[in-house]
Amino acid sequence: MASAVGHALVTGASRGIGRAIAAELARRGWTLHLASRSADALEEVRRELPTGGASAGGTSAERSHRIHPVDLGDMEQVAAFAERLRAEVPRLGLLVLNAGAAISAPLEETSLAEWDRVFDLNVRSPFLLTRELLPALRAATGRVIAIGSVVSTAAYPGQGAYTASKHALYGLTKVLAKELHADGVIVQTVLPGGVATDMVRTMRPDIDSTDLIQPQDVAAAVGSLLDMDGSALTDEIRLRRRGKSPWA
Ligand SMILES: NC(=O)c1ccc[n+]([C@@H]2O[C@H](COP(=O)([O-])OP(=O)(O)OC[C@H]3O[C@@H](n4cnc5c(N)ncnc54)[C@H](OP(=O)(O)O)[C@@H]3O)[C@@H](O)[C@H]2O)c1
């Protein structure tokens, strides 16, 4: 049994994994709210999506996908965006916390400004956005899916700020899952290894690009979380590159 479709917010929907998740959700009939900094890129994504499904209810205008250009690394913009969205979408069925940034540097060479930039987008923003959208998520008995990483639980040298931020997001996801359990709001996470996007090309140029996970495979994992809506649930899905050793 798949989750009932409705309105979904995908952060970082302009490219990479977020774009693939948006395509997967639109195909399933969700009405999408696409957020990132680039209005042009979001508009291009929006144009390529099938219109939100009839099962989401409402008029076709209410079911059309919308773009939200916003810098999610700026907490004032995050708060203002959440307020606008709450007014526009009183019932939010799905929040996909995907937008993220990484830097490649040993901790010794990481400036406080770089550390803060990574934590603002990867940790503070998901916290604030989720907190502010909780009334809309509760109203829809919705679901939160956070895109973590293998570094949510492993230590990768040269990725200190990113690794620490993904550990923090993982902790946030776990506590949120427990705090919202009684309300019926489900909180889950997908933890992929290297995925073929702009981010990995910068962070891990050493990985053979033919051995990377495709963004569509992460989107499929999100889809399978939505499909698993009967008596059994899973809190997380870990995805490894096919070439990576099992149980590494
Ligand atoms: N690629 C991997 O190997 C990998 C592996 C595991 C987990 N992940 C995680 O998957 C998520 C998506 O990563 P990706 O690989 O798809 O990265 P990506 O290709 O670099 O895309 C990042 C997305 O986040 C948006 N974004 C970046 N800074 C933003 C800001 N300040 N405000 C709003 N949006 C912002 C970007 O859009 P704009 O530039 O338009 O703002 C873009 O849509 C991240 O959380 C990442 O940590 C990636």
Characterization of the model:
This protein has helices at residues 16-27, 39-48, 75-88, 112-139, 160-180, 198-203, 215-227, and strands at 7-11, 31-36, 66-69, 94-97, 143-147, 186-192, 236-239. With 248 residues, it is α/β, with parallel strands linked by helices. The chain has one domain (7-239): 3-Layer(aba) Sandwich (Rossmann fold), CATH 3.40.50. It has a 7-stranded parallel sheet with strand order 3-2-1-4-5-6-7, sandwiched between helices. α3 (75-88) packs parallel to α4 (112-139). It is globular, with a radius of gyration of 17 Å. NADP nicotinamide-adenine-dinucleotide phosphate (NAP) is lined by residues 12-18, 36-38, 41, 71-73, 98-101, 121, 147, 149, 192, 194-195, 197-200.
What are its keywords?
single chain; 248 residues; alpha/beta; Rossmann fold; 7 helices; 7 strands; binds NADP nicotinamide-adenine-dinucleotide phosphate
Under the CATH scheme, the architecture is 3-Layer(aba) Sandwich
Secondary structure class reads alpha/beta
Strand content: 5-15%
- Largest sheet at a glance? 7 strands, parallel
Number of strands: 7
The end-to-end span amounts to 32 Å
Q: Domains counted in the coordinates: how many?
A: 1
Oligomeric state of this protein: single chain
Just give the CATH class.
Answer: Alpha Beta
- Which homologous superfamily in CATH is the superfamily? NAD(P)-binding Rossmann-like Domain
Question: Topology as H/E string?
Answer: EHEHEHEHEHEHHE
Number of helices: 7
Low-confidence stretches: none
The pLDDT mean sits at: 95
List cofactors, ions and other ligands: NADP nicotinamide-adenine-dinucleotide phosphate
Write down the Rg. Answer: 17 Å
Shape estimate: globular
CATH domain fold name: Rossmann fold
